[in-house]
Design brief:
With 757 residues, this protein is α+β, with helices and mostly antiparallel strands. Strand 12 (195-200), helix 6 (205-216) and strand 13 (223-227) form a beta-alpha-beta unit.
Length: 757
């Protein structure tokens, strides 16, 4: 087989036939004999203590089989701050009790009959208010996680500001943002003897098994989790409370139970992107050299911590590592409020941080009279070299400032992204903001760049074996959450062994059959599980060639596997893999690998540059994105079609975050005001612009076959690119997302009033 004949090709996705023909089984499709249906009673208060729960009326209904309340569930916890059901509720929609009945309507009616007596408590729905007030404590330890901010520094930021000729400061805010997945969260649970099986909307079955076992007070070996086909997640399905409730109802009823969130419940109780307030202060010299960056972020994690610590850290990544600057400080305040819980929505924190920094940098470039592309080419991290090396046109290294604690990047294609993206967009030939044939329609262009630390993830294991017919079986613990990771896994194995792509079969998503793997999150699936399956496949190939060498009276060095056949260098000797499988004395040839990807020598980061052209209607405030170019360094692209799809999806998803989507809360009652697709204002296909996707020619030395992260980075650069384009069009810089028509009109009116003074 020729080298790299599978890797780098746009082979067909593994899950397409099932999805296109309706054969894919989602959690809501799971039907078991005698299955009951569960409904959850939710809090009408943003903060209250539950005094009592009267279930008598509900229990008297024929067909009601089980009811659980905070006072009779196991004491186990899903997380330090999350009980199965808690006697203290912390947001409107928090889980209070649950009921299982013979049909869904009966379960819903029974839930409405459960009488809960609440003692309302002081509440707070805004992060700054929660930070500054001690009257309404969401949790006993206080509203600021750890009692102090997360502070990350490099150099001396005060000294950096002293070196600056000018200092700029801007403030920004971003809203809570729902992933709005097409498929709501769901779980089906059944107990057989003392063993539990759960089908659920999952992106990490092994992590879910640990959470279920811990909460329910059983051994991990007693729990089996099966990840059904997932109708999108983006981090919104990271909580296991719904599946634990289904499991406890099933244990009480002695029958299988399905619990499925309604669309309203998905908007209210599903995890969201954290809302933020960020201030960016930057010192620059008159030639545009950045001398200091200080970013401060106030982040609302909602009622429960979830992945908040990781998200608030990621929000500082742009300030710390995107620009070549010796003096940087980041302060991240993670604050509890009586809002629905936030979590690791796609790119966890990076979009918020990049929005603030990249809009600030555009403002600085404009004030200094420097083209925004040139400003970035002068200042971006790792110019042409590794880890902060700055190389002059004469190829002379003049500085070797390390990044990320002195650990260099494994690869850096940021400059190529900037240059190739600008060329494809026509940046150098762009016109200034001009009118169309209609004076009220103004066009503008903007850009941004990005850095994202994806990759290694946690420990991942895989097993690869040879089937009797010569095909290859891969068993891996990851979940394919719709991005096509199992397709890429099959490509990696086919390449490593030398077999056709179609002869590789992948088993995943079931803890009964698969080894440990991290959740499919943080753009880690290809890097972590891909590394494990590549190692296992290479070991299996060694075993196959050793057996072949014995039968062909040769040595392994003179043999190779080409298109599923073992051939000698001369080509005159040949065996099939089925021949090898039949000569193992009945034993299955298999190899396993367990890896903890990562390196103490390098940090794996992905990079990108985004360019947007918009049209702004000055009469209505409406913004239309006309075209978009996204250039990404994600290492070697293993499947161009899947990779392009990921970039296109990230751009479209974040246009909503930028221009229309936000979760609205009534500050007086704490209730969510727009828990439906109609009111959430997600963009449709009509708002989606043509997107040109470019991939930098980078092969990373760490990742499998040179690959790096890809799933999340495309969502990072969208907001600043579009907001900068709006400024180019009409001269107003929106700092409070989303950039809705009313905000743009208000900013234009304020600009007119300033001009009249």
């Amino acid at each position: 087989m020729k080298a790299n004949s599978v890797i780098g090709n746009s082979v067909a996705r593994r899950d397409l036939p099932q999805k296109l023909t309706g054969q894919a089984q989602y959690t809501s499709d799971v039907q078991l004999p005698g299955m009951l249906y569960g409904k959850i009673v939710r809090s009408p208060y943003p903060h209250a203590r539950i005094v009592s729960v009267d279930t008598a009326q509900a229990e008297q209904l024929p067909g009601v089989r089980a009811i659980i309340t905070p006072f009779d569930v196991p004491p186990g916890r899903l997380a330090p701050d999350v009980a199965i059901l808690d006697s203290e509720v912390r947001y409107v929609g928090d889980e209070v009790a649950a009921v299982a009945a013979d049909d869904e309507d009966l379960a819903e009616y029974a839930a409405s009959l459960i009488d809960v007596h609440y003692e309302p408590l002081p509440f707070v729905t805004a992060a700054r208010e929660a930070l500054e007030s001690d009257d309404a404590r969401v949790h006993a330890d206080g509203n600021l996680l750890g009692g102090e901010p997360l502070t990350l520094t490099r150099g001396d930021v005060n000294e950096g500001f002293e070196q600056a000729d000018r200092v700029f400061s801007m403030s920004f805010s971003t809203p809570a943002h729902s992933p709005a997945p097409l498929e709501p969260r769901a779980a089906v649970a059944i107990w057989e003897d003392d063993n539990l099986t759960v089908w659920k909307t999952s992106r990490g079955v092994h992590a879910d098994r640990m959470s279920l076992a811990s909460a329910l007070g059983v051994r991990r070996e007693q729990v089996r989790v099966i990840g059904a086909t997932l109708g999108a997640g983006y981090g919104g399905k990271d909580e296991s409370r719904l599946s634990v409730i289904a499991a406890e109802l099933a244990r009480r009823a002695g029958k299988p139970v399905k619990v499925e969130a309604t669309r309203e419940e998905e908007f209210v109780a599903g995890r969201k992107r954290h809302s933020t307030e960020t201030t960016v202060k930057v010192g620059v010299q008159s030639d545009g050299t950045v001398t200091a960056i200080h970013a401060t972020t106030l982040m609302d994690t909602g009622a429960y911590l979830a992945s908040g610590p990781g998200v608030v850290r990621r929000a500082g990544q742009a300030a710390l590592y995107l620009y070549r600057c010796a003096n940087v400080r980041y302060d991240g305040y993670l604050v509890y409020t009586n809002q629905p819980s936030a979590a690791s929505y796609r790119a966890l924190g990076a979009p918020q941080g990049h929005f603030a920094l990249e809009v600030t940098m555009n403002h600085i470039a404009d004030e200094l009279g420097i083209d925004q592309l040139d400003f970035r080419l002068r200042n971006h991290v790792g110019i042409e070299g590794q880890a902060g090396e700055r190389i002059t046109p004469a190829n002379e290294i003049i500085d070797t400032q390390p990044v990320e604690g002195g650990i260099p990047f494994s690869s850096n294609g940021l400059r190529e992204c900037l240059e190739r993206g600008a060329e494809a967009f026509g940046w150098q030939n762009r016109d200034a903001a001009t009118s169309t044939s209609e004076d009220h329609l103004k066009t503008g262009r903007g850009m941004s760049m990005l850095i994202y630390r994806g990759g290694p993830g946690g420990r991942s294991a895989a097993k690869v074996s040879l089937n009797d017919d010569g095909s290859v079986q891969v068993i891996a613990g990851l979940m394919d959450v719709g991005e096509g990771s199992t397709t890429v896994i099959a490509q990696i194995v086919a390449e490593a062994i030398g077999v056709p792509y179609d002869s590789v079969h992948v088993t995943f998503g079931d803890t009964a059959d698969t080894p440990e793997a991290p959740i499919t999150a943080g753009s880690t699936a290809t890097f972590s599980t891909g590394t494990a399956v590549k190692q296992a496949a290479e070991e299996l190939k060694v075993q196959v060639l050793e057996i072949a060498a014995a039968h062909l009276n040769g040595d392994t060095g003179s043999l190779d596997i080409v298109d599923g056949q073992i051939v000698s260098a001369s080509g005159d000797k040949r065996l099939t893999l089925a021949d090898i499988a039949s000569r193992t004395d009945g034993e299955t040839l298999e190899a396993a690998a367990s890896v903890m990807p990562g390196s103490t020598d390098y940090i794996v980061n992905t990079f990108g540059a985004h360019f947007a052209e918009v049209e702004v209607d000055t009469e209505t405030g409406n913004v239309r994105v006309l075209r978009y170019v996204a250039a990404h360094d994600s290492g070697r692209i293993l499947n161009p079609r899947l990779a392009t799809n990921q970039v296109e999806g990230g751009v479209s998803q974040m246009l909503g975050f930028t221009l229309s989507e936000e979760m609205l809360t009534d500050p007086q009652s704490g209730a969510t005001l727009n828990a439906s697709f109609l009111e959430h204002k997600s963009p449709t296909i009509r708002e989606y612009p043509p997107v040109e996707v470019i991939f930098a020619d980078v092969v990373d030395p760490i990742g499998p076959y040179g690959a790096k992260a890809l799933g999340e980075p495309p969502s990072v650069g969208v907001a600043p690119a579009v907001i900068n384009a709006i400024y180019d069009a009409v001269g107003v810089r929106i700092t409070d997302l989303p950039a809705t028509p009313d905000k743009i009109l208000n900013a234009l009116n304020a600009l007119d009033e300033q001009g009249e003074e």
